[in-house]
Amino acid sequence: MRRSNGAIAGIGELKPQRLTAGVTTLEMIAEVSRLAVLDAGLEPGEIDGLLVGPQVGETPQHVPATIAEYLGLMPTMANVVDLGGASGAGMVWRAAAAIQAGMCEAVLCVLANNREEVPPRSPNRNPIREFDVPFGASGANISYALLMQAHMARYGSKAEDFAAIAAAARANAQLNPDAIFHGKPAGVEAVLASPMIASPLHLLEIVMPVAGGEAVVVVSAERARSLPRSPVHLLGAGEKVTHRAVSQAPCLTSGPLKSAMARAFAQSGTTAGEMSLLSLYDCYTIMVATTIEDAGICAPGQFGSWLRDHDLSHQGDKPLNTHGGQLGFGQPDLAGGMTHVVEAVRQLRGEAGARQIENARLALVTGNGATMSEATALVLGAS
Amino acid sequence: MDLDTLNIAGPTITTLTAPFWDAASRGRLCIQRCEACDKAVFYPRPICPHCWSRRLVWRDASGKGRLKSFSLVHKPGHAGWVPAAPYLVGLVELDEGPTMLSFILTGARAPEVGDPLLLAPTQIGGRMLPAFKIDPNQRRNVG
Predict the structure, then answer these.
(1) What does the buried/exposed string (b/e) look like for B59-96 if buried means 16 or more CB atoms within 10 Å of the residue's CB?
(2) A338, exposed or middle or buried, with CB in 10 Å at 0-12, 13-18, 19+?
(3) Which residues on neighbouring strands pair with residue A206, listed in sequence order?
(4) At a CB cut-off of 8 Å and minimum separation 6, what does A3 contact?
(5) Which of A42, A109, A194, A238 has its CA 20 to 30 A from that of B106?
(6) Is residue B142 part of a domain?
(7) Are A272 and A311 in contact (CB under 8 A)?
(8) C-beta atoms of B74 and A248 within 8 A
(9) Inside any domain, residue B49
(10) Backbone angles phi, psi at B118, to 5 degrees
(11) Of A135, A141, A154, A203, which to mutate for an interface test with B (greatest number of B Cβ within 10 Å)?
(12) Which chain A residues contact residue B1 at CB under 8 A?
């Protein structure tokens, strides 16, 4: 018997139609997914991996989260496979690879399309566009303001607690000449004095959009040994997608990073307390607050007092976002999340210059997408 | 500020979601319920997100809810909303279970998380929307 790299356990198919009047692609994805999972003899809740195409014709970004939310799934591996006509076959080996990597156990691979005589006026027909935007909620600022208000109401956290996160990011950015806010520190008072965008969120608690780029090259540990740079190893990873719209979040004060980080720590056999660097995704101050609490670094609701007790600089007891974070460095769109990876590699190689953490051995890197919806955590280790 | 005069984009309604918007235009809040698992569903879907049953039926909601969170929007994400700023949006946990985002009418006092809410259909941007207001007759529930 040849070695199996994975197995296809269920199939679904819709009867082709020339036209599907009034039916969205999301609806068709729901039906064909139902057929495949039924055929596999699995319950919907057992699906913990999701691979989808790049465009469901109705939502240009966050496609896996949109589909997961629509189907009520909360996968621990979610991805777009964008290989044109090769996408379907491309999904199958990626699903098997994700299972072998320990990221998930049952992967739904789904592609579907509607076809209308007259294409819709606006092709962007995702649920947020239909059920949030008409009520005055557009963009991420309002969503994160709602998360922040919920944290304040539940735990009594204060505006100055959140402002301290932005101030620390600005302080660390003063040692990164490439940071957009290098030479422009901002303390807690300056953050609180900046314009209110959507209460309780101030302007300086929001990343500055910038142009930029980030890249990394990944090889096997064996291959890395023959290359010139000191390798930084992936020791553990975790992923979780729980929703797309903030209205559909299962919890407003804790996010999918909680289980993603738990998996990354378990895979790597490490704990949050062992990390030399916390390289935490920081689109907004509330994101850092929730991540510190979800990592178990402090108790839920206690990030404010935790911040007062710790030094987040490279010389401190808890170095956090030594490159300035995106709040200090700037957010080059999707590349912004990659800055947390690149800084972790610099620190673990010992090449961070004036902001080098002494004897940096382990780093926690987090990524976050949409409205505390899409989460990935990595534990990286020095050689 | 007359909210009805806002020049804002409306929803792109589909066959599936039309019952919600038809009801909204008549000042009602109508959501799906799953006959298989008996859970309420919002937003509308072809299958129940809890059990994947196709047995979804439309029911009038009670119009009662609880404010899970809110934001006073000073800088809207869409230019059409600028004349209304600052305005209040909130996450409304419906008594039936699901949460929806909605426009919250401002009242005599500042909103607080946990405030009881009542459906308050409001003309916004040329259409009747299921907005909410704080229910003055109920106590705050932080639970």
Answers:
(1) eebebbbbbbbbbbbbbbbeeebeebeebbbbbbbbeb
(2) middle
(3) A284
(4) none
(5) A194
(6) no
(7) no
(8) no
(9) yes
(10) -130, 140
(11) A135
(12) none
B107 in a structural domain: yes
Neighbours of A174 (CB within 10 A): 18
Cα–Cα distance measured from residue A233 to residue A348, given in angstroms and rounded to the nearest whole number: 9
CA A290 to chain centroid, in Å, comes to 13
pTM: 0.95
- In this complex, do A71 and B49 lie within 8 Å of one another by their Cβ atoms? yes
Residues A284/A207, Cβ–Cβ less than 8 Å: yes
Task: Give the DSSP letter of residue A200.
Answer: T
Contact indicator for B34, B48 with CB cutoff of 8 Å:
yes
pLDDT averaged over consecutive 10-residue blocks of chain A (383 residues)? 89 92 90 95 96 76 94 97 89 96 96 82 76 94 98 98 98 98 98 98 98 92 94 97 97 98 97 98 98 98 98 98 98 96 97 98 97 97 95
User: What ipTM was reported for this prediction?
Assistant: 0.96
Q: What one-letter code names the amino acid at B50?
A: H
Domain span at residue B20 reads: 13-134
Q: Which residues pair with A209 in a beta bridge?
A: A331
Cβ-count burial A181-219 (b if 16+ within 10 Å, e if not)? bbeeebebebbbebebbbbbbbbbbbbeeeebeeeeeee
Residue B47 has its nearest CB partner, among A34, A125, A245, at A34
Give the residue on A whose Cα is nearest the Cα of B7. Answer: A134
Range A140-381 classified under CATH 1.10.287.110: no
Whole-number Å distance between alpha carbons of A240 and A99? 14
B positions 66-95 inside 8 Å of A (CB) = 68-78, 81, 84, 86-87, 89-91
Contacts of B23 (CB under 8 A, 6+ apart): B29, B30, B58, B60
SS3 of residue B101 by DSSP? strand
Task: Provide CATH 3.40.47.10 ranges for chain A.
Answer: 140-381
Structure tokens at B29: 């809040």
The token duo for A206 is 């929001």
Task: Report how far residue A253's alpha carbon sits from residue A263's, in angstroms, rounded to the nearest whole number.
Answer: 20
Q: CB-CB: which of A27, A134, A198 is closest to B73?
A: A198
Peptide bond into B43 cis (omega under 30): yes
Residue B108, domain member (yes or no): yes
- Total domains in chain B come to 1
